[in-house]
Amino acid sequence: MSETTPSAQETAAAPAPTSIPLPVATSAAMSGVRTNTLAIVSLVASILGGFAIVGIITGHMALNQIKRTGENGRGLALAGLIVGYIAVAASVIFLVLWVTIFAAAAANGTLTTTP
């Protein structure tokens, strides 16, 4: 009958088990750093479209606060600014096209009023 226990030479050659520390997931809530509220307001107001000016103003205010206090939310504030400026630019382009089309129609006489 053969013996199943390892010899002293075999156990000396085997590496000792080591414990590897696992990374600990941290979030903003756990570390105490907050997300700037104005940054959230900026993005939400800009997405709603009709409040793009509010989104632009609160986005600039949020960037100032974030720079001063070190809060999170810089990406949200930048996204709110970008979406807000795009919405304002699209509104201006639409208004210019609308006025141009109706002015051209009135000049050609194709736009008439009925009594």
Question: Can you tell me about this structure?
Answer:
By secondary structure, the protein is mainly α. It has a domain at 35-108. Helices cover 64% and strands 0% of the residues. It is built from five helices and no strands. It has helices at residues 8-13, 28-31, 37-47, 52-69, 74-108. Helix 3 (37-47) runs antiparallel to helix 4 (52-69), helix 3 runs parallel beside helix 5 and helix 4 runs antiparallel to helix 5. The protein is elongated, with a radius of gyration of 32 Å. The protein starts with 7 loop residues before the first helix and ends in a 7-residue tail after the last helix. The model has no long low-confidence stretch (mean pLDDT 84).
Features:
mainly alpha
Task: Produce a short descriptive summary.
This protein has about 120 residues and is mainly α.
User: Helix content range of the residues, please?
Assistant: 55-70%
Envelope shape:
elongated
Q: How many helices in DSSP terms?
A: 5
Secondary structure category: mainly alpha
Low-confidence stretches: none
Mean pLDDT: 84
Order of helices and strands: HHHHH
Radius of gyration: 32 Å
End-to-end distance, in Å? 118 Å
Oligomer: single chain
Largest sheet: number of strands, sense, barrel closure: none
Q: Which range does the strand content fall in?
A: under 5%
Number of strands: 0
